[in-house]
Write a structure and sequence with these properties.
The protein has 3 helices and 6 strands. By secondary structure, it is of the alpha+beta class.
């Protein structure tokens, strides 16, 4: 689960995530419970979703998935760092 992000980051659910696989763009959906739906499968972590999407067991899902926040595209990793820093 994307539980290490503060709850306000995904409380709305249905947030589109994008990544670039070897065959082009890949989309997934971040749910309100922190799980990710990719290719109609529910996965517990960004990394498991990215690895399924790419077929690469070395990919880091936090760096792979991006989303748009306030008109700016950011990786899940960047968003996590900025939200954790805000809470300090």
């Amino acid at each position: 689960m994307v539980a290490v992000l503060p709850p306000q980051a995904f409380s709305a659910g249905g947030i589109t995530l994008t990544g670039r696989g070897k065959h082009g763009p890949v989309r997934a959906t971040l749910q309100a419970d922190g799980k990710i739906i990719c290719f109609q499968q529910t996965l517990d972590t960004p990394t498991s979703a990215a690895r399924m999407a790419t077929g690469d067991d070395r990919v880091d899902g936090w760096a792979f998935w991006s989303l748009t926040v306030d008109g700016k595209t950011r990786t899940l990793s960047d968003l996590r760092v900025s939200l954790i820093t805000q809470d300090d």
